[in-house]
Amino acid sequence: LGTPDKKEAGNRNIYLKDHMDRVIKLGKSYQPYWESPTGEDRNKATEFKPLFEKFMDDKRLEGMRENTLKLYKYLFDQLMEIRKVISQTEWKPTFNISTLNNDHIRDVMNYYSFRLAGEKGLRNIKPDTVNIRYKCLRSFFRWLSDEGIISNTPKLKYLPTKKKQPSYFSNSQFDKIIECIENHPVRYDALLIDVYKFYRSTGMRLCEQCKSTLKGDEELRIK
């Protein structure tokens, strides 16, 4: 009970008994107020930093590229910075993510507007840069929803951008790619060529084939 005082120990024991159902559900992640650095009860299982670390571990297991993981890490650092700049709420490592609401989303959107405008001026804000951050956040929010941490996925409205026309490898360009694989000093398995042909013929992104389902002979569904 963390105290040599018998009276205080008795009070803390009564406190734990009153909260026993919740304590059992929280398990080892629960910290009563006398053990918590914040002076309040803490459930580390719903705090931002531990959850984000678990999210990153899951993404590594899915085979996410290191550059994308670095982008997520950069995003986390920025969220921690919000409280220093423009936060109406709290974005700190001990923030209880289950309380996420629209005020926090406004903090995020205000932060990017403020930060980019301060660095480059409003006219030079690149919507694509902001939208990449929003896309990462959406992925994290969906993961929180799948884990049952939050009940609703917060909405982040992407900034309008100019629609880009898709680009494709020409037949001659693709033939050169295949030729490079075939003539590479390291003898690659023929499966690698099939993989390139698969991505080219379907237009799928690198990780999408890991989350796709084949329905029948011709229909390929991507989550």
Question: Can you characterise this structure?
Answer:
The protein has 223 residues and is mostly helical. Helix content is 53%, strand content 5%. The chain contains 8 helices and 4 strands. It has helices at 6-18, 20-26, 48-61, 66-85, 102-120, 127-146, 171-182, 190-202; strands at residues 30-31, 42-43, 212-215, 219-222. The protein has a two-stranded antiparallel sheet. It has a two-stranded antiparallel sheet with strand order 3-4. The two termini are 48 Å apart. The mean pLDDT is 78.
What is the compact description of this entry?
The chain contains eight helices and four strands; from the N terminus they run H-H-E-E-H-H-H-H-H-H-E-E. It has 223 residues and is mostly helical.
Number of strands: 4
Structural class: mainly alpha
As laid out across the biggest beta sheet, the strand order is 1-2
Helix content: 40-55%
Following the backbone from N to C, one meets helices and strands in this order, namely: HHEEHHHHHHEE
Major beta sheet summary: 2 strands, antiparallel
In what range is the share of β-strand residues? 5-15%
Shape: elongated
The residue-averaged pLDDT reads 78
Task: Kindly report how far apart the N and C termini lie.
Answer: 48 Å
Radius of gyration: 24 Å
Q: DSSP helix count?
A: 8
Low-confidence stretches: none
